[in-house]
Amino acid sequence: MQTWIDKIGYGNGDISAGIDVFWLPSKGRQTILISPMEQARLIQRIIVGDVPFSTASLATLKELMFIKRTDRGSLYGKTGSGTDDDGTFALGWFVGYAEHEGKTYAFACVAQGKNIMSKQAHTIVEKVLQKEGIL
What we know:
Blueprint: H1 2-8, H2 36-48, H3 55-65, E1 66-69, E2 74-83, E3 89-100, E4 103-112, H4 118-131
Antiparallel strand pairs: 1-2, 2-3, 3-4
């Protein structure tokens, strides 16, 4: 896992918390850190194929990330949620891209607050893309 994290330059690259939890924040545990801008740039690199993955793997990733198609465009993404030290949801991510009229738009949205989850981040992105006429 560390080799691939290093190859794509993912965030601070710290997976020392353990292979099954390094992305899950928890009190007293150092986790991998990545900013929304770094996430969006990675998505952009994935879109153009500037990552060390095979064409077949990238095609599978695109298929797995597919969310919906409208008459204006298509939406691809991955959500994630996190909790605070008390176990209350407090973080929502939605990372991905939209295709519209031959153009591709990468995005990363993070929302934070009490009882915030990925669905709130997803809703924010869809509203922005709809308002901009992309989706």
